[in-house]
Write a structure and sequence with these properties.
The complex is a heterodimer of chains A (about 375) and B (about 190). Chain A is mostly helical and about 375 residues long. Chain A has 14 helices and six strands. In chain A, helix 3 crosses helix 4 and helix 5 runs antiparallel to helix 6. Chain B has eight helices and two strands. In chain B, helix 3 runs antiparallel to helix 5. Classes of the chains: A mainly alpha (about 375), B mainly alpha (about 190). The interface between A and B is medium-sized, with 19 and 17 residues.
Chain lengths: ~375, ~190
């Protein structure tokens, strides 16, 4: 039997792994589709771009579904508060995501140019909007979310959809949008050729620069911008039965969210790898080296998600109106029994999923050329 | 802990009372009566929904068995009644799913988790307007998709296998033939 405290840490790590897995795989789907109408000028080029992700996008989306499911099972309080509180933001993501399956399936069924153009923009929205909103949501975690819990631990959200769209959170949205666009651009560089690849390299470089600037900007804003951090008041029993009402929380003035980095300097590796990744993206795109850019974007995605996770730790969702009910990974979690069962299930199935996903990429690897699209015009997307 | 174990089974019923009175320990006889009444489901509706679901299931099973024989014997096209049955059976899965959903969800009321968590406490704190807004948005979006889908479905069922562009099927042959006669005439 694993200790409850350790189980809580395991699930903090696992949800992080799922989020990173989602951002790395579905990330290039979203990024490449957000760039597709811009880097693909002809129908064949756009189809080539779409067909680089055709065999993978649904499988990649499962990372998103799994992250949602793991959130529900491991951190039910976070799930309830986030999904009800940020209701319209999540619906916006959902409606944007609706455009993807229909876009992929309908687009090439008719020859009509207007029809194909419309679906191309639909796919662009389906990639760009979720990428932006996820960043906005993360940004709001640093500011605190206006919710409170009653004595039966029911959460009530008092903010509005437009309150989520504050300047700080919007800059965070641009961080994630540019990051995933750079990732998607690097993916297109790997999997396409000719002008499409050249334009993708240009887009990747531009997005890499935008990511680097906004990522550093958010860091500076958190340090100098007077955003309050949250700290858990000690003594706090991390092994206790989870109850988000049984703790005290202090908000700590300026650059409070940076405290973890001075307490555990090893965590500095996360922002360093994000910045190093951004440099690799820009360098690789400039030299037309797809592998370098893609390695860079992989580092950037992993690094920036960990940067946010480390900064917030142990908080998951701080409350701006009632800090003591802030949700942390110690007290917004499921029971020990649930976490034990989930750990067993995850340790069996996550490796299996990783193996067959890798196999799928291995089988479907290769450069998608315009000729390939023309030769298989009636069986491809 | 001992007193918790002793009263564990009743806690859910206490929460059920919360719909009628904020402070459960002060509940009047009338409150208790009202909460008790909530636990009795709509038996007539459940009775018929359940049977509609099961009937749909068995009809589908029957169709599959008959169809399996017909396909094995390759004589399905000689049995117009079977083809009609198959056509009119199209809504059966939907009916079974909807009535089954009602049996599961309606029949479980007033609980989300039986005898532990009542529905009125497990629901989110969203406003009615939020929920209406999202339902209307979903219905509108899916109606548009339905129209597009029907257009494509009808177009491609008319084309039949010719849409695969293998050159083996009726419409393509017809097209090729017409092109040829056109050439010959000119």
């Amino acid at each position: 039997m694993i200790e409850y405290e350790l189980l809580k840490i395991i699930w903090w790590v696992l949800v992080g792994v799922l989020l990173i897995g989602f951002a790395l795989t579905d990330g290039f789907d979203m990024g490449s589709m957000a760039l597709m109408p811009f880097v693909g000028k002809t129908d064949d080029e756009r189809r080539a771009a779409i067909n680089t992700i055709a065999p993978h996008w649904e499988g990649n989306q499962v990372w998103f579904v799994t992250a949602g499911g793991a959130l529900f099972a491991a951190w039910p309080m976070v799930y309830a508060t986030a999904f009800s509180g940020m209701y319209w933001a999540l619906l916006l993501v959902l409606f944007a995501l609706f455009l993807r399956p229909v876009g992929f399936d309908y687009r090439s069924k008719l020859q009509n140019t207007q029809w194909r153009n419309s679906w191309d923009w639909g796919l662009c929205i389906g990639g760009a909007v979720p990428a932006l909103v996820f960043g906005v949501a993360f940004g709001n975690m640093f500011l605190g979310v206006p919710f409170t819990l009653d004595e039966t631990v029911r959460s009530t959200y008092t903010g509005s959809f437009f309150a989520l769209l504050n300047p700080f959170a919007l800059v965070c949205g641009i961080v994630s949008l540019s990051m995933l666009c750079a990732h998607g651009g690097a993916w297109l560089m790997l999997r396409t050729d000719g002008v499409l690849r050249q334009r993708s390299a240009k887009a990747t470089q531009l997005m890499g620069i935008l990511f680097l600037v906004t990522f550093l900007g958010v860091g500076a804003w958190l340090y100098f911008g007077g955003i309050e951090g949250y700290t858990l008041v000690q003594p706090f029993n991390t092994n206790a039965v989870a109850n988000p009402l049984a703790k005290e929380v202090l908000t700590t003035g300026n650059h409070g969210w940076m405290n973890n980095y001075s307490i555990y300097p090893i965590t500095m590796l996360a922002p360093i790898s994000a910045i190093f990744g951004a440099i690799l993206i820009i360098f690789g795109a400039g030299k037309n080296k797809a592998g370098v850019s893609f390695t860079g974007s992989t580092l950037a995605v992993t690094g920036s998600i960990l940067t946010a996770g480390f900064a917030l730790f142990p908080f998951l969702m701080p409350s701006s109106i009632n800090p003591t009910v802030s949700l942390t990974m110690w007290d917004a979690v499921s029971s020990k029994n649930t976490l034990t069962v989930m750990t067993v299930v995850a340790s069996i199935f996550v490796p299996i999923i990783l193996i067959y996903t890798t196999w799928c990429y291995y089988k479907m690897w290769g450069v998608i050329t315009n000729k390939h699209v023309q030769d298989n015009s009636h069986s491809l997307y | 802990m001992a007193s918790f174990k002793e009263n564990q089974k009743d806690l859910g019923y206490g929460l059920l009372l919360k719909k009628y009175t904020e402070n459960v320990t002060d509940a009047s006889e009338a409150h208790i009566q009202a909460a008790t009444k909530d636990t009795i489901p709509n038996v007539t509706a459940l009775f018929f929904s359940f049977r509609a679901m099961v009937a749909s299931g068995f009809l589908m099973l029957l169709l599959f068995i008959l169809a399996t024989f017909a396909v094995a014997k390759r004589n399905a096209e000689n049995k117009p009644w079977l083809l009609k049955f198959a056509l009119f059976a199209l809504p059966l899965p939907w009916i079974a799913a909807q009535t089954g959903w009602y049996v599961a969800e309606g029949g479980r009321q007033p609980w989300t988790i039986g005898e532990v968590l009542p529905t009125h406490l497990s629901a989110s704190s969203l406003s009615t307007g939020d929920v209406w807004g999202s339902i209307i948005a979903l219905a509108a979006f899916y109606t548009v998709l339905l129209i597009i889908e029907m257009y494509l479905m009808i177009k491609f069922s008319r084309l039949g296998p010719s849409s695969l562009h293998t050159g083996k099927y009726h419409f393509e042959k017809l097209e090729a033939q017409q092109a040829q006669t056109g050439e010959n005439q000119s």
